[in-house]
Design a protein that fits this description.
heterodimer, A: about 80 residues, about 5% strand, elongated, B: about 500 residues, mainly alpha
């Protein structure tokens, strides 16, 4: 785990607070049911969070090893 | 009316053509047939997984849930996103393990992770039974879509036979390549259709989204609130957790990960998937629009909301297009289920259980022979009922989520647990689930004094918790047997 991975907590916190917020804050948001708008927005933000993690956690550069490389290096294909 | 019929038939013929052509002179070894020789890039893995995730259940069920239940349906938007987020770490690790050990089937993963052929056989049996239920659901959905969209001119049974035969033919010839090629067209078409319907219907009938929800609120006061009994907020939150943890444990979804060319192809797929999940939001708009336009659909009929409002609004040829796209939504997951079930039966049940020395080539041939038989069994149960068997199969499909503790423990940087813990955990989860399903036990009946917040927690999650605790306790008690495999999460 790297510090940038802490971002992943945001969507999880958001999805779990959505239902409670819809009951206590307001039933509608931008014309739609509150929870629907909330979940749609966080669906998009989940992708954004993962893009940021992917960009900054080094997996963009490190993880390009192909299936063939992995099996040749290990010599294991049982 | 015949316009719809012709369009649907054209879709099926096109799918069969694309599926057969996908072989393109490849020699179909078992690895090539089942997991595409592990050569799929980001886009193809994405299309395949999106194609599987958005099945007839999404097509009929998402709009049907919005139509009949309202806000509880929004859990579908949340659980996918959380599953993809978890997948960001789980899938690359699973891919590495599968590639190192040459896994081609779902239970290969468990058999190699826990070095237990017996665990592989047990997982296979549950998976095959569970996939029978999932295939039955796809075929039943296919029958409903085609018979509705053809204005009743094609009986569901005819549609189910045609669909099942097409699947068996192209998947036997082209394997996973057949499904992937059809998924390309299917994913694009369903995206276009969902966005179009989800925007057009609210504007056409209500003049806008806000106006649509205003009118729903006026006609059905309180409908846009989370219910205070039944599908409550605790049900919503616990179901999100349960379904997100179980998301990748559908055997045919899991093995799509094997098909990836590289670790980053898998990881990029998890980044893209939440965007595609937006399709569901548009399906919800269709369901909400149907509430006031085609009222009165209750029980299982609420799944017809989308098809009914489409028939009321558009001319037959366009209804045919919707029906044709509906056929594709059944074909992609259905054919992947056939592929995976037959690989499991041939490789993990037959070879690992009875004939350890059978050659790879023989197992490959056997899988292709088993495939039509498995399809026939599913068609039989769709058309003839067999309520006990179907209930058992549905139970097995809910049992798949109970593999989560063993799955995730094997991916940890320092793998934890052993085959005894895996067996005990899955067994404990199965007992709780069986009690919940068989004797209608839930937290309300177990804890009569408990508030609704506790009482309406999804029993699947309770079973999963019992399972997880059992897994940990048994692992600690049998520590000397713990597996220390070379799997690790690497840099992530």
């Amino acid at each position: 785990m790297k510090p940038v991975h802490c971002l992943a907590a945001l969507p999880i916190a958001a999805f779990y607070s959505g239902g409670w917020l819809a009951e206590h804050v307001g039933t509608r948001l931008a014309g739609l049911p509150f929870l629907m708008t909330w979940n749609i927005v966080w669906l998009l933000l989940t992708s954004v969070v993962m893009v940021v993690m992917f960009r900054f956690d080094g997996s963009r550069d490190a993880a390009s090893a192909s299936a063939q490389d992995l099996r040749e290096h290990d010599g294991a294909a049982s | 009316m015949n316009a719809a019929l012709a369009v649907i038939a054209a879709f099926l013929a096109f799918a069969l053509f694309v599926g057969l052509r996908a072989k393109r002179g490849r020699t179909m070894s078992l690895e090539q047939w089942a997991v595409g020789g592990r050569g799929f890039g980001t886009l193809l893995v994405f299309l395949l997984m999106a194609g599987e995730a958005f099945s007839t259940f999404t097509f009929l069920g998402a709009s049907g849930w919005a139509y009949s239940k309202g806000p509880p349906a929004f859990y579908i938007l949340a659980y996918g996103a959380i599953a993809y987020l978890l997948g960001y770490w789980m899938l690359p690790a699973a891919w590495r393990h599968a590639t190192r050990h040459g896994c081609v089937s779902f239970s290969d993963f468990f058999a190699t992770a826990y070095r237990s052929r017996a665990l592989g056989v047990v997982v296979s049996l549950v998976a095959v039974l569970g996939m029978t239920a999932l295939l039955i659901i796809q075929l039943r959905g296919l029958g409903i879509i085609v018979s509705e969209a053809s204005y009743g001119t094609i009986a569901p049974s005819v549609a189910i036979w045609c669909g099942a035969i097409a699947m068996v033919v192209y998947i036997t010839v082209s394997g996973i390549h057949g499904s992937a090629s059809i998924a390309i067209y299917k994913d694009i078409l369903i995206l276009v259709i969902a966005v179009f319907l989800g925007i057009y219907l609210p504007l056409h009938y209500f003049g806008g989204f806000g106006e649509m929800f205003d009118r729903i609120e006026a006609a059905r006061p309180g409908f846009l609130h989370m219910p205070t009994s039944g599908l409550t907020l605790s049900w919503y939150n616990s179901t999100i957790l349960l379904t997100s943890l179980g998301y990748y444990l559908y055997p045919y979804v899991f093995t799509s990960v094997y098909a990836a060319r590289s670790e980053s192809a898998v990881r990029k797929n998890t980044i893209l998937m939440p965007l595609y999940q937006m399709v569901i939001a548009f399906m919800f708009f269709v369901g909400f629009a149907a509430i006031l336009q085609v009222p009165g659909l209750t029980g299982a009929d609420s799944d017809l909301a989308l098809l009914r409002i489409v028939k009321q609004t558009f001319s037959p040829w366009f209804v045919g297009v919707i029906g044709g796209v509906g056929v594709l939504t059944a074909l992609v997951p259905g054919s992947m289920i056939l592929l995976n079930a037959s690989t499991l039966i041939a490789k993990n049940i037959y070879r690992d259980g009875f004939a350890p020395h059978a050659s790879e080539a023989f197992v490959g041939k056997l899988a292709k022979r088993v495939l039509p038989c498995f399809g026939l069994v599913a068609v039989f149960f769709v058309l003839r009922g067999g309520a006990t068997f179907v209930a058992l199969a549905l139970f097995a499909s809910s049992l798949l989520t109970q593999l989560f503790p063993s799955f995730v423990a094997s991916l940890l940087p320092r793998p934890f647990g052993n085959k005894y813990a895996a067996f005990a955990g899955i067994g404990a989860g199965a007992v709780v689930l069986a009690a919940a399903v068989g004797f209608d036990i839930n937290l309300h009946t177990l804890l009569p004094g408990a508030p609704d917040t506790v009482g309406s927690i999804n029993m699947g999650l309770v079973a999963l918790a019992v399972n997880g605790v059992t897994f940990v306790v048994v692992s600690l008690l049998t520590r000397s047997h713990n597996v220390t495999t070379e799997i690790n999460l690497g840099k992530a």
